[in-house]
Amino acid sequence: FHSGEREEKCIIEDVPSDTLVIGNYKVQRWDIHIQDFLESAPGLGMFVTVTTPSAEVLLSKLYGPQGTFSFTSYLSGEHIICLQSNSTRFVTFAGSKLRIHLDIRVGEHFLDESVVQAKDKVNEVNIRLEHLIEQVHHISKEQDYEREREEKFRKTSEETNSNILWWAIIQTLILISIGFWQIKSLRDFFISKKLV
Known about the structure:
The chain contains 2 helices and 9 strands, in the order E-E-E-E-E-E-E-E-E-H-H. By secondary structure, the protein is an alpha+beta fold. It has 2 domains: 108 residues, GOLD domain (Jelly Rolls); 36 residues. The strands form 2 sheets. Strands 1, 3, 4, 7 and 9 form a 5-stranded antiparallel β-sheet that branches. Strands 2-8-5-6 form a 4-stranded antiparallel β-sheet, with no helix packed on it. InterPro entries: Emp24-like, GOLD_dom.
């Protein structure tokens, strides 16, 4: 995505509890002379802030023009990840555009292929098996989190349906009572005018 210097851009990532989140980013600055983005932005860093669903700051750190940040969620829900450049220019003069490449991986533990190749075949199979077990645990946590969300949604839907039913019953009772009151008022009017 593109951003201006000193402009804060935030994304929302829905994360289950006790889950590792790894983010890789790279910043490129627009060069007016060549009319293209430079391969890197030397001297420019990114300030990364991660906020939990309960509005607590989980991570707040300054990184370089290219880097990796990670955090482990302890609450399930929508985590807000914000990126802002640390440009020293004033906001009014900071007209340079930035291109930010962001890759966020939730709940994955990556294998270091160089380590795997250095080990013998038994260790390679063992490491890959451990990696698969970690992925199964992550999928299980993700399913538990989705079940929790579905249960909350179902509870909210049932409460709403119950409220709608009671509102309809109250409206019906009000309409019936107004109808009886109008009939009684009309009857009393006709009796007072001696039309009945």
